[in-house]
Specification:
CATH superfamily: Uracil-DNA glycosylase-like domain
Number of domains: 1
Number of strands: 6
Largest sheet: 6 strands, mixed
CATH topology: Uracil-DNA Glycosylase, subunit E
Strand order of the largest sheet: 1-3-2-4-6-5
Structural class: alpha/beta
Radius of gyration: 16 Å
């Protein structure tokens, strides 16, 4: 099973390269940053796009935001190795600007394919960019930490929107909110695992 999943994820990466998705971003990027972690995870974390360190190393959430994400996982008695971590946009936007709508739209089908392969029980969106694709029209200030069940393809999944760790780095009050939401998250995941 693991080998088949790995092959399917490698095929998604190959398809992005073959289809020349977001060539302007690809030209400026060092690496295509697909994802990292447990491909049999019950939970997938989805950010917006790689930053500078992620682009260099080819792994999502390894810079300052990644350190904070690891801390948050630890406070919630979770390990990074228990989760799969990715972004909607797989190339770093220049100067860490927000990804454009057209870029998110171009990468969305590949993210959907990643989720189809991994089959998580819970999807945690980190920040508004990824949240808006699963919960359109929601505001992160209202929706954070609240699980929502949505129809995703032919099955239902639980979406839990959280603030992006980068936002919490610059805003102490968001850090406190993020810690509380992460503590709720482990309970949400356990409920879904046992269903």
């Amino acid at each position: 099973m693991i080998d088949k999943k790995r092959l399917l994820l490698e095929q998604i990466k190959a398809d992005i390269l073959r289809n020349n998705i977001c060539p302007d971003l690809a030209q400026e990027a060092t690496n295509l940053v697909m994802g990292d972690g447990n491909i049999n995870a019950d939970v997938v974390f989805i950010g917006e796009a790689p930053g500078k360190k992620e682009d260099i190393l080819g792994v999502p959430f390894v810079g300052a935001s990644g350190k904070l994400l690891n801390e948050m996982l630890f406070t919630a008695n979770m390990k990074r190795s228990d989760a799969y971590i990715t972004n909607i946009v797989k190339y770093r936007p220049p100067n860490n600007r927000d990804p454009m709508i057209s870029e998110k739209e171009a990468f969305w089908p590949y993210l959907v394919r990643q989720l189809d392969v991994i089959q998580p029980k819970v999807v945690v969106t980190l920040g508004r960019h990824s949240m808006n694709y699963f919960l359109p029209g929601q505001k992160i200030g209202n929706a954070h930490g609240q699980p929502s069940q949505i129809q995703f393809g032919n099955k239902k999944i639980i979406i839990v929107p959280l603030y992006h760790p980068a936002a919490a780095l610059y805003n102490g009050s968001l850090r406190t909110i993020l810690i509380k939401d992460f503590n709720k998250l482990s309970k949400i995941i356990n409920v879904q695992k046992n269903k």
